[in-house]
Amino acid sequence: MTHRVAIVGAGPSGFYAADGLLRGRPDLRIDIIDRLPTPFGLVRAGVAPDHQGTKAVVRQFDRLLAQPDLRFAGNIEIGRDLTWDEVIQSYDAVVVATGMVVDRKLGIPGEDLPHVWGSWRFVAWLNGHPDFRDGPDLSGVKSVAVIGNGNVALDVARLLAKSPDEMTKSDIVPEAGAAIAAAPIADIHVIGRRGAGEASFTTNELAEMGRLARAVSVADASVLTAEAPAADPTPERLRKAKNIETLKRFAAQTPGEKPVTVHFRFHATPTAIRPGEVELSTGPLAADLVVTCIGYTGEPFPQAESVFPVGWARRGPSGTIPTNRADSHAVAKQVIDFLEDRDPKSGPDILPLCVDAEGWRRIDKAEVAAGAAQGRPRVKLVDWQALLEVAQGD
Ligand code: NAP
To answer: Is the CB of 49 under 6 A from ligand 1?
Structure first.
């Protein structure tokens, strides 16, 4: 008999935890449980559909799914199909890799208006998450306010700014791609409440905003005076200095040079949202669509000696996907140490009927085949029933 570990959440931190566990204890039996019938969490639903290079990390995770002692258990929701208590009682250890999937709120008037979208909901729609089938009405959207100065804000601005040709190799949901292509978007404002030096954009992602076919990125040169202190030797200093350089290049561009203009605005705090307008500390700004990209919160989970949170569930919504590898491996080591002097629990297998790795392979095959017909990496199944039917081989 060997120890059994449940990993709740089949996103990157969950898979990296499985990888760390199997490296240290190849004899472990691991169940990766997810409420969706599809694995890969944030990589499938949150990484921008045009960043296929980032999404390619799933190949590593797919290899793990082929391991005999690792089971994928999709379409299992804790609270609906199993209780946390049952999971904690039945497994020798539980890794909580549920991420953060609730949009943080600005806490200002007008935030609940229909033209205000949180980035999780917005990007999940573009990515075909079955809980987010309906997107915003973009048919009259000329001006967009993207609130936040992180990489998610850049993802949202870029996806709205890109031409249909630039999206052909993406796995954006076709209806969402068509809605963006047909929208009369002319201005996208990326709004930071602090200065350019405080923005958390990473270098390559910001530079990408200067290489868009149908959009020009601009910034106000007068606010780009912040220089990182030369005495600061950290990679952070380099990142900030490069960002300022990039924004200075944007400042030399002319708004309106291309059909879409992306305006980088700093020191502008949103204070209220009204139909067609967002009130900033710097004054009102026309906005037919507002997308808040200000971070996420997660769902609560129980604390217990045998429960080990990992990834965003442990440390909050920060860091890129590779950051999670080291983090998850460190937690996997803690789990292995925890199990060392404990006898494995005995008891029945509590997993109800689920979508297993074979079911996921059927979904994957169907999506890739649908994509091949259009020269795209995949066309996702976005409907719960269709996902479950294909998984069952119907
Ligand atoms: P983030 O980098 O933490 O950015 C959140 C932004 O929201 C910050 O600019 C923050 O401003 C702003 N904000 C928070 N509360 C606000 C408020 N009440 N009013 C106005 N602005 C507010 O987070 P993220 O963009 O959601 O990204 C999450 C993580 O995923 C990051 O580590 C990111 O690098 C990563 N990611 C990576 C990629 C990639 O590698 N391509 C793509 C997407 C995401 P302050 O700084 O002033 O608090």
So the answer is: no
CA of 294 to the centre of ligand 1 (A): 5
- Separation of 295 CA from ligand 1 center, angstroms? 6
Residue nearest to atom 17 of ligand 1 (CA): 106
Task: Give pTM, 2 decimals.
Answer: 0.96
Q: Which atom of ligand 1 is nearest to the CA of 108?
A: 18
Ligand 1 atom 13: the closest Cα is on which residue? 294
Kindly give the distance from the C-alpha atom of residue 281 to the centroid of ligand 1, in angstroms, as a whole number.
Answer: 19
First to last CA, the chain: 36
Instruction: Report CA(200)–ligand 1 centroid distance (Å).
Output: 6
The pLDDT profile of the chain, 394 residues, written as one tens digit per residue, is 899 999 999 999 999 999 999 999 999 999 999 999 999 999 999 999 999 999 999 999 999 999 999 999 999 999 999 999 999 999 999 999 999 999 999 999 999 999 999 999 999 999 999 999 999 999 999 999 999 999 999 999 999 999 999 999 999 999 999 999 999 999 999 999 999 999 999 999 999 999 999 999 999 988 787 665 666 778 888 899 899 999 999 999 999 999 999 999 999 999 999 999 999 999 999 999 999 999 999 999 999 999 999 999 999 999 889 889 999 999 999 999 999 999 999 989 999 889 999 999 999 999 999 999 999 999 999 999 999 999 999 7
Which residues, 6 or more positions from 186, have their beta carbon under 8 angstroms from its beta carbon?
A: 142, 143, 259, 260, 261
How many angstroms separate the alpha carbon of residue 81 from the centre of ligand 1? 34
Joined tokens for residue 321: 């996907």
Q: Is 151 in the pocket of ligand 1 (CB under 6 A)?
A: yes
DSSP H or E run through 6:
strand 4-8
Quickly list DSSP for 192-203. -SS-GGG----H
Q: Is 362 helix (H, G, I), strand (E, B) or coil?
A: helix
Nearest atom (ligand 1) to Cα of 106? 18
